[in-house]
Design brief:
Helix content is 0%, strand content 54%. It has no helices and eleven strands. It is globular and about 40 Å long. It has 115 residues and is mainly beta. The strands form two sheets. Strands 2, 4, 5, 6, 9, 10 and 11 form a seven-stranded mixed beta sheet that branches. Strands 1-3-8-7 form a four-stranded antiparallel beta sheet, with no helix packed on it.
Length: 115
């Protein structure tokens, strides 16, 4: 069974930083593309970034230069370093994978950017 758990969220002031992590199990982690998505209050799910099995990464335009995604295949984890946070980054953040055609989204972690 695919299991994903995001953690590390919290309250941070505008301009601050936060590091999220996603712990994964139940599939061959090292070969899977993993993505982060988020959902702001009252909004639809938004793609944030993704990291390929080789560590290459892609980002939504609004995250480029501020967010950095990385993975540790030895620990089955994906990390998301978020810098220069803005109020509009407030959302629940989730990690997702698609394994054998089935999308799995773990329990999210809430990030609140507010002064």
């Amino acid at each position: 069974e695919v299991q994903l758990q995001a953690f590390g969220g919290g309250l941070v002031q505008p301009g601050g930083s936060l590091r999220l992590s996603c712990a994964a199990s139940g599939f061959t982690f090292s070969s899977q593309y993993v993505r982060w998505v988020r959902q702001a209050p009252g909004e639809v799910i938004e793609w944030v970034c993704g990291v390929f099995s080789d560590g290459d990464s892609v980002y939504a335009d609004s995250m480029k230069g501020r967010f950095t995604v990385s993975r540790d295949n030895a620990k089955n984890t994906v990390n998301l370093q978020m810098n220069s946070l803005k109020s509009e980054d407030t959302a629940v953040y989730y990690c997702e994978v698609v394994v054998d055609g089935v999308r799995s989204r773990g329990q999210g972690t809430l990030v609140t950017v507010s002064s």
